[in-house]
Write a structure and sequence with these properties.
There is one protein chain. This protein is of the alpha+beta class. It has a domain at 35-199. Helices cover 41% and strands 12% of the residues. It has helices at 2-15, 42-51, 68-82, 91-113, 145-157, 186-198, 216-219, 221-224, 227-235; strands at residues 52-55, 58-61, 134-138, 141-144, 204-207, 210-214, 247-251. The strands form three sheets. It has a three-stranded mixed β-sheet. Strands 1-2 form a two-stranded antiparallel ribbon. Strands 3-4 form a two-stranded antiparallel sheet. The protein is globular and about 50 Å long. Mean pLDDT is 93; it is low at 1-15. Residues 1-18 form the signal peptide. This is DUF547 domain-containing protein. Keywords: Signal.
Length: 259
Protein backbone atom coordinates (compact mmCIF):
# COMPACT_ATOMS: atom_id res chain seq x y z
CA UNK A 1 0.00 0.00 0.00
CA UNK A 2 2.72 2.47 0.95
CA UNK A 3 4.71 1.58 -2.18
CA UNK A 4 1.65 2.14 -4.37
CA UNK A 5 0.99 5.50 -2.72
CA UNK A 6 4.61 6.55 -3.20
CA UNK A 7 4.53 5.67 -6.90
CA UNK A 8 1.22 7.48 -7.41
CA UNK A 9 2.49 10.62 -5.71
CA UNK A 10 5.70 10.52 -7.73
CA UNK A 11 3.79 10.29 -10.99
CA UNK A 12 1.44 13.06 -9.95
CA UNK A 13 4.23 15.43 -8.95
CA UNK A 14 6.12 14.90 -12.20
CA UNK A 15 3.21 15.44 -14.58
CA UNK A 16 0.52 17.56 -12.94
CA UNK A 17 0.48 21.31 -12.72
CA UNK A 18 -2.54 23.31 -11.62
CA UNK A 19 -2.18 27.04 -12.10
CA UNK A 20 -3.43 29.14 -9.18
CA UNK A 21 -6.35 31.48 -9.73
CA UNK A 22 -5.92 35.22 -9.71
CA UNK A 23 -6.90 36.31 -6.19
CA UNK A 24 -6.11 39.83 -5.05
CA UNK A 25 -4.03 40.43 -1.94
CA UNK A 26 -5.49 43.86 -1.27
CA UNK A 27 -2.62 44.94 1.00
CA UNK A 28 -0.44 45.43 -2.08
CA UNK A 29 -3.00 47.37 -4.12
CA UNK A 30 -2.07 50.72 -2.59
CA UNK A 31 0.08 53.10 -4.66
CA UNK A 32 1.20 56.73 -4.72
CA UNK A 33 0.50 58.00 -8.23
CA UNK A 34 1.89 61.41 -7.33
CA UNK A 35 5.34 60.02 -6.58
CA UNK A 36 7.60 60.56 -9.63
CA UNK A 37 10.56 58.70 -8.10
CA UNK A 38 12.00 55.87 -10.19
CA UNK A 39 13.49 52.68 -8.81
CA UNK A 40 16.90 51.48 -9.98
CA UNK A 41 17.25 48.02 -11.51
CA UNK A 42 20.84 48.52 -12.63
CA UNK A 43 22.21 45.71 -10.46
CA UNK A 44 19.76 43.23 -11.98
CA UNK A 45 20.70 44.52 -15.42
CA UNK A 46 24.36 43.80 -14.70
CA UNK A 47 23.54 40.21 -13.78
CA UNK A 48 21.50 39.75 -16.95
CA UNK A 49 24.12 41.33 -19.20
CA UNK A 50 26.91 39.10 -17.85
CA UNK A 51 25.08 35.78 -17.74
CA UNK A 52 22.29 35.66 -20.31
CA UNK A 53 22.87 34.49 -23.87
CA UNK A 54 20.71 33.67 -26.88
CA UNK A 55 20.62 30.17 -28.37
CA UNK A 56 18.12 29.74 -31.18
CA UNK A 57 14.70 30.70 -29.84
CA UNK A 58 15.80 30.59 -26.20
CA UNK A 59 17.64 32.86 -23.83
CA UNK A 60 19.80 30.82 -21.48
CA UNK A 61 21.27 31.69 -18.10
CA UNK A 62 24.80 30.59 -17.24
CA UNK A 63 24.04 29.23 -13.77
CA UNK A 64 27.14 27.04 -13.82
CA UNK A 65 29.70 29.74 -14.49
CA UNK A 66 28.25 32.82 -12.83
CA UNK A 67 31.03 34.75 -11.13
CA UNK A 68 31.21 35.37 -7.37
CA UNK A 69 30.91 39.07 -8.19
CA UNK A 70 27.65 38.56 -10.05
CA UNK A 71 26.29 36.33 -7.28
CA UNK A 72 27.01 39.16 -4.86
CA UNK A 73 25.42 41.68 -7.22
CA UNK A 74 22.27 39.56 -7.44
CA UNK A 75 22.10 39.24 -3.65
CA UNK A 76 22.56 43.01 -3.24
CA UNK A 77 19.83 43.70 -5.79
CA UNK A 78 17.33 41.46 -4.03
CA UNK A 79 18.22 42.85 -0.62
CA UNK A 80 17.80 46.41 -1.91
CA UNK A 81 14.41 45.61 -3.41
CA UNK A 82 12.92 43.82 -0.42
CA UNK A 83 13.93 46.76 1.81
CA UNK A 84 11.59 48.96 -0.27
CA UNK A 85 7.89 49.47 0.41
CA UNK A 86 6.60 49.32 -3.19
CA UNK A 87 3.26 50.78 -2.13
CA UNK A 88 4.97 54.18 -1.84
CA UNK A 89 5.52 54.26 -5.62
CA UNK A 90 3.20 54.66 -8.59
CA UNK A 91 1.80 51.59 -10.31
CA UNK A 92 4.15 51.82 -13.29
CA UNK A 93 7.13 51.58 -10.95
CA UNK A 94 5.45 48.84 -8.97
CA UNK A 95 4.93 46.67 -12.04
CA UNK A 96 8.60 46.66 -13.02
CA UNK A 97 9.51 46.19 -9.34
CA UNK A 98 7.46 43.00 -9.00
CA UNK A 99 8.41 41.49 -12.37
CA UNK A 100 12.14 42.06 -11.87
CA UNK A 101 12.01 40.84 -8.30
CA UNK A 102 10.14 37.67 -9.31
CA UNK A 103 12.70 36.89 -12.01
CA UNK A 104 15.68 37.72 -9.78
CA UNK A 105 14.33 35.55 -6.95
CA UNK A 106 13.83 32.67 -9.40
CA UNK A 107 17.41 32.92 -10.64
CA UNK A 108 18.67 33.07 -7.06
CA UNK A 109 16.59 30.01 -6.18
CA UNK A 110 18.16 27.99 -8.99
CA UNK A 111 21.66 29.15 -8.07
CA UNK A 112 21.13 28.12 -4.44
CA UNK A 113 20.18 24.59 -5.57
CA UNK A 114 22.39 24.19 -8.64
CA UNK A 115 22.99 21.74 -10.22
CA UNK A 116 19.34 20.86 -10.78
CA UNK A 117 17.67 19.61 -13.97
CA UNK A 118 14.38 21.39 -13.47
CA UNK A 119 12.82 23.92 -11.14
CA UNK A 120 10.04 21.38 -10.59
CA UNK A 121 12.51 19.31 -8.55
CA UNK A 122 12.64 22.02 -5.90
CA UNK A 123 10.20 22.67 -3.09
CA UNK A 124 8.80 20.38 -0.44
CA UNK A 125 8.59 16.63 -0.99
CA UNK A 126 4.87 16.59 -1.83
CA UNK A 127 4.89 19.76 -3.99
CA UNK A 128 5.34 20.31 -7.70
CA UNK A 129 8.03 22.96 -7.66
CA UNK A 130 8.86 25.75 -5.18
CA UNK A 131 6.16 28.28 -6.03
CA UNK A 132 4.25 27.95 -2.78
CA UNK A 133 7.36 28.11 -0.58
CA UNK A 134 8.07 31.38 1.25
CA UNK A 135 10.92 33.00 -0.67
CA UNK A 136 11.18 36.49 0.81
CA UNK A 137 9.63 38.97 3.24
CA UNK A 138 8.60 42.54 2.43
CA UNK A 139 7.04 44.91 4.98
CA UNK A 140 6.89 41.99 7.36
CA UNK A 141 4.75 40.02 4.89
CA UNK A 142 6.04 36.60 3.89
CA UNK A 143 5.78 36.12 0.13
CA UNK A 144 5.95 33.18 -2.25
CA UNK A 145 6.52 33.34 -5.98
CA UNK A 146 2.85 32.45 -6.40
CA UNK A 147 1.90 35.39 -4.22
CA UNK A 148 3.81 37.78 -6.46
CA UNK A 149 2.39 36.42 -9.70
CA UNK A 150 -1.15 35.41 -8.79
CA UNK A 151 -2.07 37.65 -5.85
CA UNK A 152 -0.29 40.83 -6.91
CA UNK A 153 0.64 41.05 -10.60
CA UNK A 154 -2.31 39.30 -12.24
CA UNK A 155 -5.18 40.73 -10.18
CA UNK A 156 -3.85 44.29 -9.94
CA UNK A 157 -2.79 44.81 -13.55
CA UNK A 158 -5.07 42.29 -15.30
CA UNK A 159 -2.81 42.13 -18.35
CA UNK A 160 -2.33 38.76 -20.06
CA UNK A 161 1.14 39.85 -21.13
CA UNK A 162 2.27 39.27 -17.53
CA UNK A 163 2.54 35.61 -18.54
CA UNK A 164 5.27 36.59 -21.00
CA UNK A 165 7.18 38.66 -18.42
CA UNK A 166 7.64 36.37 -15.41
CA UNK A 167 10.13 33.56 -15.97
CA UNK A 168 10.10 30.08 -14.41
CA UNK A 169 13.68 29.12 -15.34
CA UNK A 170 12.43 26.57 -17.88
CA UNK A 171 12.88 26.16 -21.63
CA UNK A 172 9.12 26.05 -22.13
CA UNK A 173 8.68 29.40 -20.44
CA UNK A 174 8.62 32.73 -22.27
CA UNK A 175 12.22 33.89 -22.36
CA UNK A 176 13.91 35.71 -19.53
CA UNK A 177 14.41 39.04 -21.27
CA UNK A 178 17.93 40.48 -21.59
CA UNK A 179 16.83 43.83 -20.20
CA UNK A 180 15.43 44.72 -16.81
CA UNK A 181 11.89 46.07 -16.83
CA UNK A 182 11.50 49.75 -16.00
CA UNK A 183 8.47 52.01 -15.86
CA UNK A 184 9.69 53.57 -19.12
CA UNK A 185 10.23 50.40 -21.16
CA UNK A 186 7.50 48.14 -19.74
CA UNK A 187 5.00 48.44 -22.60
CA UNK A 188 7.64 47.91 -25.29
CA UNK A 189 9.13 44.99 -23.35
CA UNK A 190 5.75 43.32 -22.86
CA UNK A 191 4.93 43.66 -26.54
CA UNK A 192 8.30 42.25 -27.53
CA UNK A 193 8.04 39.35 -25.09
CA UNK A 194 4.54 38.46 -26.29
CA UNK A 195 5.48 38.63 -29.97
CA UNK A 196 8.69 36.67 -29.41
CA UNK A 197 6.91 33.85 -27.60
CA UNK A 198 3.93 33.59 -29.92
CA UNK A 199 6.25 33.49 -32.92
CA UNK A 200 8.41 30.75 -31.39
CA UNK A 201 7.85 27.01 -31.70
CA UNK A 202 7.58 26.64 -27.93
CA UNK A 203 4.79 29.19 -27.87
CA UNK A 204 2.87 28.36 -31.04
CA UNK A 205 3.90 25.54 -33.37
CA UNK A 206 1.78 25.39 -36.52
CA UNK A 207 1.51 21.96 -38.12
CA UNK A 208 -0.97 21.94 -41.02
CA UNK A 209 -4.40 21.76 -39.36
CA UNK A 210 -2.96 21.41 -35.86
CA UNK A 211 -1.67 23.92 -33.35
CA UNK A 212 0.68 22.85 -30.63
CA UNK A 213 0.49 25.61 -28.06
CA UNK A 214 2.34 26.21 -24.85
CA UNK A 215 0.50 24.80 -21.86
CA UNK A 216 0.46 28.34 -20.50
CA UNK A 217 -2.61 28.92 -22.67
CA UNK A 218 -4.30 25.90 -21.14
CA UNK A 219 -3.34 26.63 -17.52
CA UNK A 220 -4.49 30.24 -17.74
CA UNK A 221 -7.75 29.95 -19.67
CA UNK A 222 -9.14 32.26 -16.99
CA UNK A 223 -6.99 35.05 -18.45
CA UNK A 224 -6.86 34.19 -22.17
CA UNK A 225 -10.53 33.31 -22.55
CA UNK A 226 -12.22 30.69 -24.70
CA UNK A 227 -10.68 29.23 -27.84
CA UNK A 228 -11.91 32.04 -30.08
CA UNK A 229 -10.60 34.72 -27.72
CA UNK A 230 -7.27 32.92 -27.42
CA UNK A 231 -6.90 32.73 -31.20
CA UNK A 232 -7.71 36.43 -31.46
CA UNK A 233 -4.96 37.16 -28.96
CA UNK A 234 -2.45 34.96 -30.78
CA UNK A 235 -3.35 36.30 -34.22
CA UNK A 236 -2.75 39.88 -33.07
CA UNK A 237 0.94 38.91 -32.95
CA UNK A 238 0.85 36.18 -35.61
CA UNK A 239 -1.77 37.13 -38.23
CA UNK A 240 -1.70 33.77 -40.05
CA UNK A 241 -3.60 32.28 -37.10
CA UNK A 242 -6.62 34.54 -37.55
CA UNK A 243 -8.70 32.04 -39.51
CA UNK A 244 -7.24 28.86 -38.06
CA UNK A 245 -9.57 25.87 -38.10
CA UNK A 246 -8.26 22.67 -36.62
CA UNK A 247 -7.24 20.93 -33.43
CA UNK A 248 -5.21 22.39 -30.59
CA UNK A 249 -2.77 20.52 -28.38
CA UNK A 250 -0.67 21.76 -25.47
CA UNK A 251 2.89 21.01 -24.36
CA UNK A 252 5.55 22.39 -22.02
CA UNK A 253 9.25 21.76 -21.46
CA UNK A 254 10.27 22.02 -17.80
CA UNK A 255 13.99 21.54 -18.56
CA UNK A 256 16.22 24.16 -16.97
CA UNK A 257 17.01 27.20 -19.14
CA UNK A 258 20.74 26.76 -18.56
CA UNK A 259 23.55 27.67 -20.91
Amino acid sequence: MQKTLFISLALLSSTAFAAPKSELWSYWQQSDEQNPQMLSHELWQQVLSHNLSISGQNTLFDYKNISPQDRNTLTRYIQNQIAIDPRNYNQAEQFSYWVNLYNALTVELILENYPVKSITKLGSWFSFGPWDETITTINGKALTLNDIEHRILRPIWQDVRIHYAVNCASLGCPNLQPFAYTSENTQAMLEHAASEFINSDKGVDVKADQLQLSSIYDWYREDFGNEQQLLEHLSSYRPQLKNFKGTIHYQYDWSLNQK
